[in-house]
């Protein structure tokens, strides 16, 4: 890059006749020496070191069982934790629901929040690339044309009388100018490093938004299915209680029941009826949420109706090693990138307190007629170097450096907090999965017992050994057990999806995610690699 620039400058300067002299060679050698010195200069400030992963052997306080409890119902299969198992990028396909897969793909393609995050990544990428342009000399071409009329009261000299005469003349000046600021102390390198780290931060923010979106769709679909079944069971309960109220009213009229029994049953019916509107409201909200997550208006096409029985519960659950969790969580990687940017900003603040050098050169031609441009005797050239050093700025540069160091401490503590939250999130989810399995097992047993009671009550009622109120009470108990079972099933599906999110969502197995993972784990390239990287990117 530098050799080509030097050749271009020499070619332009050679267009002027005055360059036949070798008097400019010492200045040119000085320019080349300063350019080389700028490339070989140091980058002040600390070099970023990735924080070490927490030295812990497990993710939970108590040892984690290898297998959860199971139950003989939909979503009741035992789940086994597989240590250091990989997570697919499309982990939601493990639920084996074509409707769910289609809805998530639609959400990933049309969700406005995700599109905004992708646009923010493009902004950060272009900002980093724009700053890398400072590695190169700035070359500008210019052309000026002027036509002037001299005053008629101009004397040829101080001892001559004023002779009225009109002078008209023109100037045509094409020229090429080059400027370059050698990065002696790494100001530009640290600035580029900071912007590249900010790009990584935005990249992981976008990855986190993608994982959160897919998890929210799964959770909303599970909640919708759960609410639909709860509403159906609640309506059955209301119908049963209505029948019981009618029977008690008849018995009260005949003198077989007391007013207190009827009032108690009417109160229970009213309470059941009061539970239905909130369930319907939540169902409408979940349907609206599914539409918005998919990038549609709630008034558009209705969301698909999900059924818990149609969802497959993944039986093999990944369990990441603690040392790998920090590399898999996008929020931790974002906090790490913020640390990296803060570290580079310290170097920027230090470099701002040191001298900076700028080199300029220009060459061109000036002629009174356009046809004589670049002809013999019309050329000119110039070369110069400037150095500027801050002497007194009222302490602002010193305090900016201190602020940058304090910002690094802040980013470090935020990183530590993010890591702690990540481990807490995983531990909470693992505990929830164990308790969900136990709760589902208990709810399944209760539902089976209630179903057996209902079957026996129906048989006794049919044989005349039990009354109708007893049968309705058994049906009521079964529907209540059914609601509890549906809630337990939904919790297990939702927390299974939450585990995939807590472990990082498998973003590194996606095509763009693998590139981000590779870029984030590679060492920072040397300054001599920047020109090659730019050329390769431009060729692509």
Q: Tell me the series of helices and strands, N- to C-terminal.
A: HHEHHEEHHEHHEEHHHH
> What is the CATH C-level name?
Mainly Alpha
CATH architecture label: Up-down Bundle
SS elements, strand count: 6
What keyword list fits this structure?
disordered N terminus, disordered C terminus, two-stranded parallel sheet, alpha+beta, 540 residues, Outer membrane efflux proteins (OEP), 12 helices, elongated
In short:
The protein is of the alpha+beta class. It has helices at 2-13, 25-40, 98-110, 112-132, 187-254, 259-293, 322-328, 330-351, 396-463, 468-502, 511-521, 530-539; strands at residues 80-83, 138-150, 167-180, 316-319, 356-365, 379-388. It has a four-stranded antiparallel beta sheet. The chain has a two-stranded parallel sheet with strand order 1-4.
Walk me through this protein's architecture.
The chain is α+β, with helices and mostly antiparallel strands. The protein has a single domain, classed as Outer membrane efflux proteins (OEP) (Up-down Bundle). The chain is 59% helix and 10% strand. It is built from twelve helices and six strands. The strands form two sheets. A four-stranded antiparallel sheet has the order 2-3-5-6. Strands 1-4 form a two-stranded parallel sheet. Helix 5 packs antiparallel against helix 10. The longest helix has 68 residues. The chain is elongated and about 145 Å long. The chain starts with a helix and ends with a helix. 34% of the residues are buried. The N terminus and C terminus are likely disordered.
